[in-house]
Specification:
By secondary structure, this protein is of the alpha/beta class. It has two domains: 51 residues; 251 residues, 2-enoyl-CoA Hydratase, Chain A, domain 1 (Alpha-Beta Complex). Helix content is 48%, strand content 15%. The protein is built from 14 helices and eight strands. Strands 1, 2, 3, 4, 5, 6, 7 and 8 form an eight-stranded mixed sheet that branches. Helix 6 packs parallel to helix 8 and helix 10 crosses helix 11. It is globular. It starts with 9 loop residues before the first helix and ends in a 14-residue tail after the last helix.
Length: 330
């Protein structure tokens, strides 16, 4: 992957590059006295790197979390498929119009157990992003997702969905083919699935495009992801008449994984590798594996009717409930 650093990451990247240079110099061999001094400098820089990383990521703003969720080197759905699952077979098409490359689905095994996988997939290059619509599915993508979920129910396979989209594709062609109806049917049918369903927000979780594959028994979020009814830029365009005020909107929306967990929307936060998932995808995938394994084990103890009831209770308890104060007489 190409080297890329967000503005707040740059001091750390510069220090790490200096450390890498010293290590390369040490590897070429030096006199014993110089080697001792070089080793001491390397250890000092390593301590500085660790301290600086902790300082930078200890108090990230909500906008910085949004930026991290969009990092071009961040692992996408298929990166996690490669690291967590075996026997992956992608399935294509909605049997009605086309195959949407923005929403990927197929069969796989997790710890030897058959599962069905769904998720939005972004691209690494401009060409691939155009092919995958920057991870924004059209109606045929959601109809494909629904077809595969019903297939999972027929063969008693748990559904694991990876959410990573700024929202459903907003183009005229998507509206002409029934974008809203496709999402609505996904919401309705996923709510009634009689097999366990787990959704994981691995990056962006924007609007109904994310919720369409998020009506689940367990919702997990990676540490530096976000989940909201609207993206910060779109919110800013509506509220402030200026899409460049996304930073202000992000603070108002309270859209980070930590916010969602504190509001009771998310069942578990999955810690990422130090500095974000893009810095060590394998370590992040390992932590996600443990979380998925634990929740699947719990859900497999429930029968089909209990699975539906569990999902129903999960969504019914969202949000505070207040009783109206009766009027006083007198």
């Amino acid at each position: 992957m190409s080297t890329f650093a967000l503005e707040f990451e740059k001091p750390l990247l510069e220090l790490e590059q200096k450390l890498a240079e010293l290590k390369r110099h040490a590897a070429t061999g030096t006199a014993s006295g110089d080697a001792d001094a070089l080793d001491g400098e390397i250890r000092r820089l390593e301590r500085r790197c660790t301290k600086l990383q902790q300082e930078i990521f200890a108090e990230l703003t909500r906008w910085q979390v949004v930026q991290l969720s969009r990092h071009p080197n961040r692992p996408y759905m298929l990166d996690y498929v490669q690291r967590l699952f075996t026997d992956w077979v992608e399935l294509h098409g909605d049997r009605s119009f086309a195959d949407d490359q923005a929403l990927v689905g197929g069969l796989a095994r997790f710890d030897g157990e058959p599962v069905l996988l769904l998720g939005q997939q972004k691209g690494r290059s401009t060409k691939e992003n155009l092919l995958r619509s920057f991870g924004m599915p059209r109606p045929e993508g959601y109809r494909k997702a629904l077809r595969l979920m019903k297939l999972a129910e027929r063969f008693d396979r748990p559904v694991i969905a990876f959410i990573d989209t700024p929202g459903a594709y907003p183009g005229i062609d998507a509206e002409e083919r029934g974008q809203a109806e496709a999402i609505a049917v996904c919401l309705e049918q996923m709510a009634a699935l009689q097999v366990p369903s787990i959704s994981v927000v691995i990056g962006e979780g924007g609007s109904g495009g994310a919720l369409a594959i998020g009506v689940c028994n367990r919702l997990l979020m990676l540490q530096y992801s976000w989940y909201s009814v609207i993206s910060p830029e779109s919110c800013a365009a509506i509220l402030y008449r200026d899409s460049s005020k996304g930073q202000k909107a992000a603070e108002a929306l309270k859209l980070t994984a930590r916010d969602a967990y504190e509001l009771g929307i998310v069942d578990e936060l999955v810690e990422e590798s130090a500095g974000g998932a893009h810095r060590d995808p394998d370590a992040t995938a390992g932590k996600l594996r443990e979380a998925l394994r634990r929740h699947l084990r719990e859900l497999r103890l429930l029968g089909p009717d209990q699975i539906v009831e569990d999902r129903y209770r999960k969504f019914r308890k969202l949000g505070p409930i207040t009783e109206p104060t009766p009027p006083t007489l007198g």
